[in-house]
Structure formats: C-alpha cells, structure tokens
What we know:
Blueprint: H1 2-42, H2 51-80, H3 89-120, H4 125-128, H5 133-150, H6 153-156, E1 158-164, E2 167-172, H7 176-211, H8 219-228, H9 235-267, H10 275-292, H11 299-306, H12 308-318
Antiparallel strand pairs: 1-2
Domain G-protein coupled receptors family 1 profile: 34-306
Keywords: Membrane, Transmembrane, Transmembrane helix
Main location: membrane
Amino acid sequence: MSxxxxxxxxxxxxxxxxxxxxxxLFQVIFGTxxxxxxxxxxxxxxxxxxxxxxxxxxxxxxxxxxINSLLLAITLESGYNIFLTTKSLFLxxxxxxxxxxxxxxxxxxxxxxxxxxxxxxxxxxTIRQRSNLRLSYIYLIIGTVFWLLFHSPAWFFTTITEVNxxxxxxxxxxxxxxxxxxxxxxxxxxSSIILLILFGLWAVKNIRRLxxxxxxTISLQSRINRAEGTYKINPKDQQFVSMVLIDIIIFSICSxxxxxxxxxxxxxxxxxxxFEQIQISIFLKEITVFCLHIPFxxxxxxxxxxxxxxxxxxxxxxLCN
Length: 321
C-alpha cells in the first residue's frame, strides 16, 4: 500500500508540475499578450467613448496585474522550481496584495460592464441615460480606491514561513486574517457568479424584448415611439453585450470550481486526513488555481470570435490606422 501511495503522490506531483510548466507558461504569455492588445484596442478614440469599453479597459489592466503576480509566481514555483516570493519578503507582500486587489477589481469592473449592458438595452430612455462616461469613471475611481484600501491588510499579514527543512512558503500568517480570507474568498466567488449571471440574463431579456418591437417607418412617429419606449440597440452595443456574456460564461464556469473547492476545504479542514488525502487535496487546489486564472487570460481571443467591431479595431491596430 505504501508503494501505491508513493506512486500516486509522484504521479500527482508530476501532473501538477507539467501543468504549470506548459499550461501555466502558456497562460502567462498569451494572457499577457491578450491583455496588452485589449488595452490598446479599448483605449482607441472610437471605442473609449463607450462606457462598456472603459470598463473592459479597466478589466484588462487588472487582468494583466493578476496574471503577472500570482499566476506568474505559481508557474515559476510549481513548474520550474524558481521561488522568487520566498527569497524576498517584499515580493511576497507585493505578490499577494496585487493578486487580491487585481482579482476583485477585475471582477468588479466586469460586473459594472454587465450592469451597463442592462442599462443600455433597456426600453426606457431614462434608464439608458444612466449609461454614460461620467458615471463609469466615478464608479471605477470609487471602486478602485475602496478595494485597494480593503485589501491593504494583506500587505502586512503575509509572510515567509518554513514548512519543513529548507522548504519555505510565502502565504498568509496563521490567525484571524487567514480565517477571514478563507471565508471572504468563498463569498466573493459565489456572489460574483450570482451577480454576473443575474445581470447577464437581465440583458438578454432586455434584448429579446427589444427584438419583439417593430419600429414604425414614419420618422416622426418613430421619434415619438422611441420616446415612449421603443428602441433599437445599435450593432456596436449589441456586440459589447456578446463580449460581456461570453466573459460571464467563462468566469462563472471557472470560478464555480473555486467556490466549490473552497467550500469543501472549509467544511473538511478539521477532519483527520491520511497522507494520501492531503496530497490529493493539494493537487486539486493547484488544478483549481490554474482554472481560476483562465478567465483572466482568454478575453482577447473570445472577443475576436464574437465581435466583428473588435476584429476591425484589432486589424486597425496592426495596420497602425
């Protein structure tokens, strides 16, 4: 039995190592490239006038930070045995603080984008008017300042600890903040999924309602009806809805895995586990963390698939137009 367990542990460690050596490196490289391209595209003059484009710009800035903090550190450690965060306390603090606020701010901005799509697809003029650049900048500034301050304790409650002889780990200090982070992570992932699905379905419902409305052909009558509630969403806003929806789907699938794993971990944390169970738990944790980073690396490539306007903007970037 001990030989079988030993073989299982070696197998799981090998799978994890190769997953991050190749899959993690792939995510870091292509995720970083995708974020940079998205930032360039959404900062172009013809797009940044749209509040949803501003939210997407912010999303990709925080995605870039998230990919190049925690994912990069885990990829180097698990895939290549390069332990940067355990060599410097400053890098340890920086990695965890950056990953915390970048993760939540990316999700926060995606939620704002989904709310914006609900507003812009409404049949009521007064509701559509709430989708504007001034409010989008206000929400982004307030949200960024709040979440930066909210996660500031992470800078002080992360440390480098010795797991065993000559084996160090950068992680949260054992205590009340670690307990808080554990429950906070579950609540954050679960509530984000619920909110994104809610607003995504709401936007789809608004679009279906608009498609059932046929606008009159007489221009004067058209203006009157638009004022009273009939409205046709323009193609660019329609494509922004598609981009938000595909991001919501990918995020919900990957984050639900994290929410389930974290919940199970909290429920079983005080149970006596065998060495084999501990190793399986560590392996599942590394798989969950890998999947958790997928939504932050794929946005550019899904946008190319679902949006003609995005493909045109990307083409103009490469043609320097």
